[in-house]
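Run log, item B.
One chain of 323 residues. Sequence copied directly from the ordering sheet:
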Amino acid sequence: MAGCSGIRRLATEYAYERAKPFAGSAFGDFVRHDIALEAKKLVSGWPFDLKVKASVGQGLWASVPWLAFFDPLVTETATKGYYVVYLINPDAQTISLSMNQGTTAVINEFGQTRGHEVLKRRARDIADRVHDFASRFSEGPIDLSSLAGLPAGYEAGHSFGRVYHANALNDDQLSADLQQMLLAYGALVNRGGTTSSEAMQEEAGGADIDETRRYILSRRIERSPKVRKAVLMAKPPICECCGLEPARDYGFNGPAHETPLDVHHTAPLHELALDETRRYRVPQDFMVLCPTCHRMLHKTETPSDLDGLKRKLRFKIAREVNF
């Protein structure tokens, strides 16, 4: 990263600092704010749209502190989805750069023992889906020197990465490895994440895997709460095809982002590059549609051709015919 001093300090001083009170810890503030800010500045110059967060625990010191990078299309928390993370082993003073997964939902569903097996299997699937990137890293296990529940989950959820010793960090290598890992993360999102090929093809209704992946990514963009809120705050809450206006036609009076309309990603599937990192612009790349028009537009050959769908309309909103 732009200087190894922050993450090196985290790895070398954490064991000492966590012996002190958690509340009001200046070291805790340093990790949550300074280290996270340093990482944010770095990735802001790269073609990624990521949320960056560092943690030393909530209310109590964590056994394993971390610095994570989240794609909002997938997750904004370490408890679910998949993400890139630096995991600190304070006893061995090592730093593991890891493609990892949220464990909470899996453990809640399957229990700890079975849940760890599920995480390991999904970790293997992740490495296989982005094998061209995973092969540049180690796919061996990581050791966080802790028997606590969360560190054991991190170990089980680890897919691939690299381990560094705090006293042997190199700025250039750390930065290059992180950039490659974030490219792998973007590729993983674009290729369907942890969703099976069969499930993706069933939803997309097509046989070509590349087109299916693009369809799934487009739908993921549309369903993102962050994207939805931004689009509906920027565009009028009216269906751009049939003219349905929930406030006028249904008496809806809630906030704009809760209006019963959909956002539609207009980038044609054949123009959405498989490993594209800048995936959309708000509001330019979106339409606001009622659920019916949205569904119909996805069934057309050109899901950005709003005028074509308008020409097919055979009805009018009741208020337009004074009904």
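Observations after the first pass:
- The chain has a mean pLDDT of 88.
- The chain has two domains: 5-190, 220-321.
Flagged for discussion on Thursday.
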